[in-house]
Structure formats: C-alpha cells, structure tokens
Amino acid sequence: MSGNEIRERFLKYMEERNHAVIPSAALVPENDPTTLFTGSGMQPLVPYLMGESHPKGTRLADSQKCFRAEDIEEVGDNRHTTFFEMLGNWSLGDYFKEEQISWFYSFLVDEIGLNPENLYVTVFAGDEENNVPQDDEAVAIWQKLFQEKGVSDGVARMGSEEDGAKRGMREGERIFYYDASKNWWSRAGKPENMPAGEPGGPDSEVFYDFGTEHDPAFGEHCHPNCDCGRFLEIGNNVFMEYVKQEDGTFGKLPAQNVDFGGGLERITAAALGESDVFKVDLLSNVIEQIATLSGKSYEDNLVPFRVICDHIRGAVFMIGDGVMPSNTEQGYFVRRLLRRSVRYADTLGIGEGKLADLAESVVETYQGHYTNLGEQKDQIIETIRTEEAQFRKTLEKGLKHFEKLAHGDITGYEAYILFTTYGFPVELTEELAVQRGHVVDMEGFKEEMKKHQEASRAGAAEKFAGGLADHSEKVVQYHTATHLLLAGLRKELGDDVHQAGSNITGERLRFDFTHPEKVSAEVLEKVEEYVNTAIKAGASVSTQTMTKTDAESDPTVEGSFWDKYPDEVKVYTVKDEAGNVYSRELCGGPHVENTGIIDGTFKIVKESSSSAGVRRIKAILE
C-alpha cells in the first residue's frame, strides 16, 4: 500500500466519522515568532486546543507538512527525516478516549491491514508527586480491543526509558506503563514544569514491532521505547484532560480534547513490514533515481543516499511554500539542505546539475495531493539548479580560504566562518583537516552555529510571518490598528500599496508597505484620522473562512503574501453599525472584537525608507 493511498484512506476514514478535513498549514508558521518551522501536526491548531472555536467545528482531520531543522544531523539512519507528514485528527471538546483509541486501532488493523500481533502500546503510569493518576481507562480500552482480535493483552510497568532497558519485556505483555517523561504531553513538558492555567494530559503511543534482533548498544533489553530499530512509533493519542491550578494541583478541564498524530511515512513502513522508511514509495522513487545517477547501490551507501533523498524532498517542499535559499532565517536551512546534498552527491560521483532531476521525482510523487508543487515545478527546479551552481563557485573560494587555515587545527569559529561566509560544509572542513593531520573543534563549531540559529529566530520575529511579539492584549490592539493603517494608506495612496512586512510589540507598531516615494505629512495626517475614526466608531471585527480562490477573486479583500496561505483562509472585516467597512483583509492572526477596545489615539511618529520601493511607518497608541 502506497503512502499516498494511506493518506487518502485516513482522511476519508475520519471524514466518514464526521471530521472536517482541513488543508495543511504552510511549513512557515503564521504569526508565531517562537519557531521557524511547523514541526508537528498540532502546532497550527494550538489556538483551538487552547479554547478558540474552529470555523469547521469540533472534529478535524488533516495531513500536516512538518519540518524539523534540529534533525538535519540525525538523518542517515532508517527512521529520521527532516521533512515528514503527520496524519492528524482532533476532538475539540467532543469525543474522547473510547472513540479515539478504537478508531485508530481499527484504522491500522481493519483499514490498512496491520497484524495486531505486531502492535504494542504505551500509557501514562501516573505521577504520585503531582497527584495525577495512572491512565487505567486507556489500558482497559486497549485490552478490550486486543482481546477481540485474540491477541495477548498483558500489562507491564516500565517507568522510565532506562527502567525499560533494565527490565525488558515478558511473554504476553503488550501494554506498557511509562512515566511522565514518555507518556505525558503539555507545552511545558512534565507536570512539575507546567505553569498555572496550562492544560495537559496523558498520551498513549502505538508502536510497530518489526521483529528485528535487539542491539545491546541501546540497552541491556529491548522494549517499545528502545531506539535499536525493532520498534517504531507510528502514532500518538494525546488526551488533554487536566489543567494546572493555582495551588499546584491538577483539575479536570471542562472541555477535554483529543490530539492525535501519526507519521505517514512510518505508518506506511509498518504497512509494508519494512523498518526502513526510505523504502516506502514516498521516498523510494528518489532513492532509485540516485542509484541510477550514481551507478551505486543503496545498501552499500546508506548514509549518502538517505541524506540526499531527505534533503532534496525537504528543499522542494520549502521552496514550494515560498522559502528561497539564503543565509538567514528559514532560507538558511533550505541552503543548508541543498549544499549538504551537493556534497553527498559528489561522494557518490553524481554529475553536476543532477539534483534538479531528483527534485522532479519529488514533485511527481507528491503533486497529486500537494498541487502547488506541480504548479511551481519549473521554479522549484530552477531554484535548485541555480543554488547548486552558485554553491560550486563558493566552494572554490572556500577551498582557498581553508588553505590559509590549514597550517594547524581548525577552531570552531574558523569552521563557522568557512561554513557561513564561504558555504563550506563542516563535514568537508573536517575531512580535509584530517587528511592534513589536523582536527576541527566541532564543539566550538556547534556553539557558534547555535548562536547563529538563535539570531535567525530573532530575525524571523522581525518578519510578518511572526510579526507579533506575543498575543497579549496590547499587541492584539496594535495588530488590528496595523490593518486599519494599511486600509488608510490604500485609501490615500491607491491600490498599489500592499503590506511588505511588520513588527508589533506592546509598545508600538512598525509597518512596511510598497510605495515608491516619501509620503507627505498631509497624507499621513489623513491616514491617522482614518484610523482614529475607525477606533472611535466602535466597529465590530468579524472573521469569515473562505477558500483562497474565492478570497483572491474578491476585489474587496486586500491580501499580501497570498502564496503563504493554505487553501482555506480567514478574512476579517471591520464594519460599524452604519455599514461602513474600514478594513477587509486576509489575516489569520488575533484581533480585537470591537475597535472601541483599542486603548489610545493612533499617532504616526515616523515615516522613512525601508528599502527600494518600500516605505516604513512607526506608530503608537498614546
């Protein structure tokens, strides 16, 4: 069974159970300065899990594109990938454990044919210190389901991952209690780390047993949470049923949520009985083409094949979401993926310019579901081809700089400069240094890279993709005022004015917009008056969910960054009781319910040039 087929079966399965199927959010999170990428299926739905109502109702399902930059160095084994898809379904105060566990089990066993003998599950063992009970309810549900299929249903207590390695598994055991380090979910981690008001709860993970021999390098005994490769986690059911109270105890949430996530590649691997995710169809097409281009076998070159395959796929999806290679922010990681791919392609003897051919294989595999890849295929391929050519030129310069340093050991900072300034992969620096009898300070290099990545995140917060400092009341007021500002600018300067970026804190707003020349003081006064009139009107702010096609074709809807949004978008309208529309714009961020809530008089304090063809306004509410 193919990965594409399993994705469609899952979405249909959940749709038949009254779930609204929603499109994947973009890989670059909207209005979230805390992270560069969407790294989990639940990330775009956090506001709804926290209590905001979803326009599609209380039952949702999707297949979410995800990217985890921190896994770049992990790629090379049989399970780690930077890009992946997370099948997900959610109950927002609707069904709970009985339905969720039964449905996922039925999907695995009855829908895609997994042998229940190969399924093992973990549950929450409780937390005595925080007075949170063990999840006996989930255990009872699992036991009933396993009994119906005539397989063993023994229960065992493992505790921590280390405890599991010491204890091992006994005959007939299938359900395992683990502590909060493994089977508890909250945004803050374990129960003791949660602040008052934070929701969380136990989870129940499902593992597939491939039956491979245990590798003692990962512990004395094997168990479901062992990393030796025998067991592969394929799904996690999170039950958000508790909230941390002011006195430190835990109470039940009034509305309990379900958050399920299952790795599409991993579920497909289980369906194939193949523990290597790079052998599932979603990746094997690229693996086969690498073999053709290199004339070498996959089995004899596992690491370079896997790195190239994973990195090209990740780059294709990011470029498809509008992220171009660069030295900062998200673009830095696209560049890093492609440059690592070039280096590994060279070790396999793959000729120059062939990465673009691999990108075409990725597009062909996924374009049936992710239609934007097919529509943007030429741009994606050309971007990758150009980046490879540019990298090969910088490699020449980097090699000259390396030769200046090759008189001795390479410091972490020197390796960092080689990488960031000259595009010289640290693996190549290390390889060349070893050939000359020198070493590279890899720990120092990692420290410099950590600083660089933190700076990239800070830079991302300066862009509109994460332009809100937080979701505090004052920031939300400034956010709505920013959109009124754009409406005022378009009214005075014309429809060629669009947003080019913004940064909003609780003290001020900064707004970039397209305009070729300085804005006069007279026009700025009129814009201020427009915004303040809208504030004084106490206009209501309403939100409507529309297809992106309908919104884009509606001349009353203003939008910037259309390509960053999913197939369904939120359009908000600011309108007073007399029917005057002050702003109607595409936006997924938080807004005040009524402009009368905006506290203060809107005042533009500065107008200046930001870059060619872009002006910048700074304003305050005083």
Would you kindly provide a written description of the structure presented here, covering whatever features stand out?
- With 622 residues, the protein is α+β, with helices and mostly antiparallel strands.
- The chain is built from 19 helices and 17 strands.
- Helix 13 (377-405) packs antiparallel against helix 14 (412-422) and helix 14 packs across helix 16.
- The protein has three domains: 3-278, BirA Bifunctional Protein, domain 2, CATH 3.30.930.10; 280-460; 467-621, Threonyl-tRNA Synthetase, Chain A, domain 2, CATH 3.30.980.
- It is globular and about 80 Å long.
- The model is unreliable at 460-466 (pLDDT under 50).
- The strands form three sheets. Strands 1, 2, 3, 4, 5, 6, 7, 8, 9 and 10 form a ten-stranded mixed sheet that branches. It has a four-stranded antiparallel sheet with strand order 11-12-17-16, with helices on one face.
- Strand 11 (499-504) and strand 12 form a beta hairpin.
What is the total number of structural domains? Answer: 3
Provide the structure class.
alpha+beta
CATH superfamily of the largest domain, please?
Answer: Bira Bifunctional Protein, Domain 2
Number of helices: 19
Q: What is the first-to-last residue Cα distance?
A: 62 Å
In CATH, what is the class of the largest domain?
Alpha Beta
Uncertain stretches of 5 or more adjacent residues: 460-466
What proportion strand?
15-25%
CATH fold naming of the largest domain:
BirA Bifunctional Protein, domain 2
Mean pLDDT: 89
Helix content: 25-40%
Biggest sheet, in brief? 10 strands, mixed
Give the strand tally: 17
**Form type:** globular
